[in-house]
Amino acid sequence: MDYSDASSGQIKSFKKNDFENDWTKVAEGKFSNVYRVKIKIWRETCALKVYDTTVPIKHLYREPMEEVSEIAKVKFKYLVSVYGMCNDVPGIVMEFMNNGSLCNLLNNTNLLWPKKFQMIHEVCKGLNFLHCLKPPLFHLNLKPSNVLLDDHLHVKISDFGVIHWEEGMDKRSFLEHLTARGNLKYVPPEIFNQLCDPPGFPFDVYSFGILIWEILTQRKPYAGFSTTTVLLNVSHGCRPSLEIIPEQRPRECDEMISIMKWCWQQEENKRPPFSEIMRKTEAQSELLRIPGPMYCPENCANECTVEAQQPIFSTYEISPPELSDPPAGEQCSKETVLSLLLRKNFCNFRTSVKREHVSTHFHGKKSLLHYTVASGDAKSVEHVLSLGADVNYVMDKGYTPLIVAVLNRLHNIISLLLKHGADPMLGDEDRWTAVHFAAQNGDDKAVRLLLDNGASAGACEKSGWTPLHLACQNGHEPVVRLLLTRLSVNAMKEREEVQGRTPLHLAASYGHVNIAMLLLTRGANPNASDSSLLTPLHLSAEAGHNRIVRNLVNNGAVVDSTDQRGRSPLHLAALNGHKGICRQLLTNGANPDCRTQKGWTAMHLATMKRHGPTVEELKSLGASVNALGEKRWTALHLACHQSEADMVAKLLAAQADPNVTEDGQGWTPLHLACASISFPSVLHLISHQAKVNATSADKATPLHLAALHGNVSIVKALLLNGADVSLRDSSGLKPVEVAQKYGRDEIVQLLEE
After folding, report:
1. Using CA atoms, how far apart are residues 157 and 274, in angstroms rounded to an integer?
2. Which burial class, exposed, middle or buried, applies to 249 when counting CB atoms under 10 A from its CB (0-12, 13-18, 19+)?
3. Domain range for residue 27?
4. Cβ-contact 679, 712 below 8 angstroms
5. Is 669 in the same domain as 721?
6. CATH number (domain holding residue 414)
7. Are residues 112 and 30 part of one domain?
8. Contact 686, 717 (CB under 8 A)
9. Measured between alpha carbons, how far is 409 from 403 in angstroms, rounded to an integer?
């Protein structure tokens, strides 16, 4: 790849003994871990990103050496520099960023507006640089954890060039890979559509829009929503709530919100390029430029303006983000108490806190107990409770102190709150109880604590999701096992309300084999249907989960069940090119020529999606290559219509009839190939005895259509194979007269000769 606009980067090969022995892990992910290391010869601290060799990183995720060889060439102020490759670990060596990721900063620090605007603009500049390379480099992995911060909290983007797209790549696999990496909230809606174009400029622009929202609000987008709910809502045009953006904000923020909405528009062609976005973010950043030094020493306070004395961010460190706001409008003594707590000065906090403080309501109706729980100090929690704090007090979003403890996995504090009467059945504004949050997070220890203290394993939130649904969707097998010990068989029949899916539907859809088997052995119905009449077998066949398909079939799943559009599991497997699953279903009795409501067979659908190997597999297992679908179209009609010459050749080799006429205009596949201007398809059809003088309902021959569309090569091929130039269509026109009518002079001359 020739990035001619980027500075040339020298790729260095490191060995493990090039680093000093004291490695410190600074970040951990599903595919890699990041360590702070020191290079002996340079005496320089760097970051070493070590890949998990047990996790496949081919296809969507570049091989490490390939990744390094490309991204090391790209040098820019707002991009993390890559120095080289360590082959015996394996990993890549890159610039170390002392202040970690933007994700951590947003969670733990209350940023001032000028700093937020500066960061937005710097991210925009980095992405604009990547898009201006020749060829452009798409990030496709933009999220706060991939935005790193230097010593002065300036932005540098990492992990660019890691996710990539290749021609013919399976979009479902691409989406599943992004979901596995935790990127779903940053994925634009068009990627959820299997017919979308390959991701490019608009993909990164959409992700940037979500990132702007996250910086402005310092909240997680779609917090508490399931993966399915996010996918459905985004597909229908929903975005993170604008109401969460603080009301007390500078007027310049309204323009930044407009930029954000511009970036995350539903239609990808309406999203702006970064070159345009950058001009606008630059203007907003200039308006709120941070004045003076980054901080003011105490001894110069009198020489600085009040504005210049403000820190870039406050020192409040508390989690979750909803509790990161400083107290608003409280008396000084109360602020002091909270300040001690948030700075983790627990001894002085416990000494200073008084009974009147525990009834104080801070910003967002948070109580002192909420803050104390989030601090993680059990002694302080017990002290605040002893002063009469309401253990079940509910803040604005509906979070109780118990929910805050569960979100932060503070098991000792969970036990303490339950001991003091915390009600585990109280839910938030969406009726998510503490067990829902624990199940979503895979925290089986918290689930056990809650269930042992009166929580219901079958509680439903407002959309009907139970903790079992959440655990099955997210693949948390220990939580599933625990919940099943407290639930009846009927609980596995419970359906969430958005799509009407059971826990088995979710396990089958997301490929969690062990959980699916566990549910089946406990009596889950393999033929339960959701609101679209899809069964777990439909979902696993569509997603390509072979082992789950096999287990469902072995446990009595009906192989020919159909959804509300008449699609069987075989249809969905063929549509997505899963030939192994097609084989499984057909060898277990599936009807190879079952039709959808529109009359399409699996052969039609595999052809429509250009899955050549699946077409061959279907044919070898008895599927008819000449089955008639909507308007009496065969698979060969579809291939000719789509100008898929390779598919045409495969179908003809499988004995497809080249002379079947469809119902609409009475066209043969050769008519369609001429209308689609597919010269190779025309040659394939003629070589398999397609009738060159076949007439349609309006008496048009393939030569009439070739003359209309002006393709000289097709006209010559038809003439060489006996096309009759004297035949007239229903308007009385010969092919030469059609060519004259539409100004095809070269065709006119050819036909007159």
Report:
1. 15
2. middle
3. 12-95
4. no
5. yes
6. 1.25.40.20
7. no
8. yes
9. 10
